[in-house]
Amino acid sequence: MATQQGTSHHYRRAADGTITYAASNFRYVWPAECDLMAQLAGQEFQARYADWHRSPFTGDSESHVSVWRQPGLP
Q1: What are phi and psi of 44, to 5 degrees?
Q2: Spatial distance between the Cα atoms of 31 and 71, rounded to a whole number of angstroms
Q3: What CA–CA distance (Å, rounded) separates 33 from 40?
Q4: C-alpha span between 52 and 64 (Å, rounded)
Q5: What are the counts of helices (DSSP H) followed by strands (DSSP E) for the chain?
Q6: How many whole angstroms separate alpha carbon 8 and alpha carbon 52?
Q7: Who wins on pLDDT, 3 or 26?
Q8: Which candidate among 19, 39, 60, 65 keeps its CA 20 to 30 Å from the CA of 12?
Q9: Of 41, 44, 47, 39, nearest to 71 (Cα)?
Q10: Is pLDDT of 1 > 60?
Q11: What angle do CA 49, 24, 27 make, to 5 degrees?
Q12: Cα 44 vs. chain centroid, distance in angstroms?
C-alpha cells in the first residue's frame, strides 16, 4: 500500500432497527515511526509484542503492541 492509508467503515443497528454509518480514515505506521513520535514526546520505550497476548514481536509479525513510559510517572 503506497499511501499507507485506509478507511474503516462502521455500521450500527439501534434497538429501534435504524442503522447508522460512520467512517474513519487512518494511516498505517511502522513501529519505528511510533518509536520516534514517542521519543519526541519525551517517552521511554518499555516493550513491544506481536499481539495483546504478549507474543514475541518478530520481523514476520503482522501487528504490534508497543509500550512506552513517561519518565517520572509510575
Answers
A1: -110, 135
A2: 20
A3: 11
A4: 8
A5: 1, 4
A6: 21
A7: 26
A8: 65
A9: 44
A10: no
A11: 50
A12: 17
Is this structure's pTM higher than 0.70? Answer: no
Gap between the Cα atoms of 61 and 58, Å rounded: 5
Torsion angle in degrees (nearest 10) through CA of 11, 65, 67, 31: -100
Q: Which of 70, 52, 69, 74 is nearest to 61 (CA)?
A: 52
Continuous segment of H or E residues that includes residue 35: helix 31-40
Separation of alpha carbons 31 and 14, rounded Å: 37
Which residue matches cell numbers 520516534? 36
| Cell output for 71 | 519518565
47-59 burial: b if 16+ Cβ within 10 Å, else e: ebbbeeeeeebee
